[in-house]
Amino acid sequence: MGNKWQKFLYFFGSFLIILFLAIEITPFNDLLAQPLVKKDGRQKSDVIIVLGGGIKKDGTLNKQTQERVKMGVVLSQEEYAPYLLLAGGQAKNRLWTESDIMTGYALSIGADPLKILKESASKNTYENAVNSLAIMANRGDKNALVVTSPYHTKRACAIFEKLTAEIYCQPVNKSLLFRQGPWDKIIYFKQMIREYGAIILFKIKGYI
């Protein structure tokens, strides 16, 4: 039994080392992300929807949410839509509402306060879509540019499309992505594995 346990630890440890090296020094993450990316191209729309990606324990946006908001602000400044809709409610175990924190960040990087809308009741991507489309319907908006992280675009846009929304999927540009250090690459790998699982779960639930 002892030898079997030692062999297991040896092979498991070897697997972790190989996986770590693949993540850190090869394009493994990029290859893993490719099937998750959907890009429709930039289109003039009634509104730009930026999907929240989480906030940290200290109440600040995590890197991926900052990237998404920055992309939304860039598109707004380039006049792809007259309004910027920031979508994100109060996450579990967080005291802050994500869309409020996103708004503060958007304003700090030059967003027009008169052009910002907020969706603050959602708990996940499906609710982001449902609630954002309800806001659009009340305003009379017909279409939207949906901005999110590259690996999140396939699932997010599939949700909007299942809800028969007219949307154009816009992943964050590489030029707006933070430089990834060793730990960031591991987090990115973890997020993509989670995303593959979320796609399966959302298909089972009929969301996509």
Written description of the protein model:
By secondary structure, the chain is of the alpha/beta class. The protein has a domain at 38-178: 3-Layer(aba) Sandwich (Rossmann fold), CATH 3.40.50.620. It has helices at 2-25, 28-33, 63-77, 98-108, 125-139, 153-162, 182-205; strands at 47-51, 83-87, 116-119, 143-148, 166-171. The protein has a five-stranded parallel sheet with strand order 3-2-1-4-5, sandwiched between helices. Helix 3 links the parallel strand 1 and strand 2. Helix 3 (63-77) crosses helix 4 (98-108). It is elongated, with a radius of gyration of 19 Å.
Structural class: alpha/beta
- The CATH topology name of the domain at 38-178 reads Rossmann fold
What percent of the residues sit in helical stretches (DSSP H or I)? 40-55%
How are the strands of the biggest sheet laid out side by side? 3-2-1-4-5
N-to-C order of helices and strands: HHEHEHEHEHEH
Architecture of the domain at 38-178, according to CATH? 3-Layer(aba) Sandwich
